[in-house]
Amino acid sequence: QVQLVESGGGLVQTGGSLRLSCAASGGTFSVYAMGWFRQTPGKAREAVAAIGWSSGITYYADSVKGRFTIARANAKNTVNLQMNSLKPEDTAVYYCAVIIRPVVATTPILSVEQEYDVWGQGTQVTVSS
User: Fold this and answer.
1) How far apart are CA 58 and CA 9, in angstroms?
2) How far apart are CA 101 and CA 31, in angstroms?
3) Would you write out the chain's pLDDT as a tens digit for each of its 129 residues?
4) How far apart are CA 108 and CA 74, in angstroms?
5) How many CB atoms lie within 10 A of CB 125?
6) Are 19 and 4 in contact (CB under 8 A)?
7) Within 10 Å of residue 25's Cβ, how many Cβ atoms?
8) How many other CB atoms are found less than 10 A from the CB of residue 32?
9) For 29, 52, 58, 74, which has the most beta carbons within 10 A of its beta carbon?
10) CA distance 33 to 31
């Protein structure tokens, strides 16, 4: 069974940086896309960034464009999210997710929560002002 292990969350001051990593493992599977979503109390989970695995097509929420970068890592089935110029409004639980069904990972699909098949436990990111 596919599992996701997230790492890299923590506490940082405004303007600082953090890098989140997510590794998918378990069984035989192919990755079609990986993404990061975030959620704060009382709000719906929102897509932050995602990447199509073979095409390299990326999606970024408007609120993070120019500050966050998603990329495949050298390790197999691992994705990194580099977060720079962090703001207090970036404070949230960040969830990694993966699509393992054969789909064409276009930009519209990448941002849709329901398209993802497996989710991580979440990692807290707190940005202090």
Assistant:
1) 22
2) 8
3) 999 999 999 999 999 999 999 999 998 999 999 999 999 999 999 999 999 999 999 999 999 999 999 999 988 999 999 999 999 999 999 999 999 999 888 888 999 999 999 999 999 999 999
4) 26
5) 21
6) no
7) 13
8) 21
9) 52
10) 6
Distance CA 103, CA 91 (A): 31
Separation of alpha carbons 58 and 70, rounded Å:
8
Rg (CA), the chain: 14
The structure tokens listed for 32 are 């079609």
Residue appearing with tokens 């990111």: 125
Reported as a single tens digit per residue, the pLDDT across 17-29 is: 999 999 999 989 9
